[in-house]
Specification:
Blueprint (H helix, E strand, L loop, with lengths): L1 E2 H8 L2 E3 L5 E2 L1 E2 L9 E4 L16 E4 L9 E4 L3 H13 L7 E2 L4 E2 L4 E2 L4 E2 L4 E2 L4 E2 L4 E2 L4 E2 L4 E2 L4 E2 L4 E2 L4 E2 L4 E2 L4 E4 L4 E3 L4 E3 L5 E4 L4 E2 L4 E3 L5 E4 L4 E2 L4 E2 L4 E2 L4 E2 L4 E2 L4 E2 L4 E2 L4 E2 L4 E2 L4 E2 L4 E2 L8 E3 L4 E2 H10 L3 H26 L2
Parallel strand pairs: 4-5, 5-6, 6-7, 8-11, 9-12, 10-13, 11-14, 12-15, 13-16, 14-17, 15-18, 16-19, 17-20, 18-21, 19-24, 20-25, 21-26, 24-27, 25-28, 26-29, 27-30, 28-31, 29-32, 30-33, 31-34, 32-35, 33-36, 34-37, 35-38, 37-39
Antiparallel strand pairs: 1-3, 2-7, 22-23, 39-40
Length: about 350
Amino acid sequence: MASLADIAAQIGGHVVGDASLEIRRVAPIDEAREGDLTFISNPKYVAKLETTQASAVIAAPGVQTERLSLVVCGNPYLAFARAVEFLHVSRSAPLGVMDGAHVHPEATLGEGVTIHPGCVVSAGARVGDGTVLHPGVILYSDAEVGNNCLLHANVIVREGCRLGDRVIVQPGAVIGSDGFGYASDGGRYVKIPQVGIVEIGDDVEIGAASCVDRAALGVTRIGRGTKIDNLVQIGHNVVIGEDTILVSQVGIAGSTTIGNHCTFGGQGAVAGHLRIGNNVTIAARGGVAGDIPDGQIMSGAPAMPHKDWLKASMVFPRIPDMRRELQQLRKKVAQLEKQLEENQSP
């Protein structure tokens, strides 16, 4: 529970109405009840202010209602995220190394860590202050995890890989799996040893069952603040910039470089050894086969400028009819050519 005034102070807003209201949770606008805080980030939902049972609403400047108290914020969606964190997310007191966890004597643990049963922290591994390792997390030798990180169940961080501070890794993700590299001798494929590492920047989140491959040589790097959804594959020696978003089932082939503030829709794919600029958006299922400069919005496979893709996609359903028309035109042209030859013959 917290007063509306306290919540407004935490999320950077100001109260219009009763600042002393006690709020117990954040709830969707259609499900909220008395004592709940909800939010509106899309103007089309303003009419719901007349029917919601919430006690207060996070809203943008200019939204008005006589029924409810408001917390006015310039970015309601961001304020909503901060309100959820303030009211719902609590960090447990550190529990130390719990029974059933195996920590090698040559590993280094920071202050206030929690290492749950079933974890393995190998020789030379380092765990920063305040970090939590949930059951089944395995840190190979010389792996490093920064301060205040959260590694969920069955995460694997392989040898030598490094995670920055405040990194969140969801269950089953693998950091530092071998890159997919083989050389052919003409008959068989010979494995190329993958002897590089992975570096994950501060404030990165990696989704469940995603894989970030270690470099063949050197470093696979994920920049600060980048957010990676579930079931994403990042190949060896890929470099991803800061604050980039990769949605579920995206695949990035090896040695590709991606800039800052990019967005990749679900099932997007990028071929290897390419350069993707800053502020690039790849729509869902977009297939990138060439370099892309800064600031582009691309769709389709192969990816093309989004406006061109929209025009092309409108044509696709008409292709069968267009084919029939073309066949008919060919027949008519053939008939006209035949008539012309007959008319010209002596």
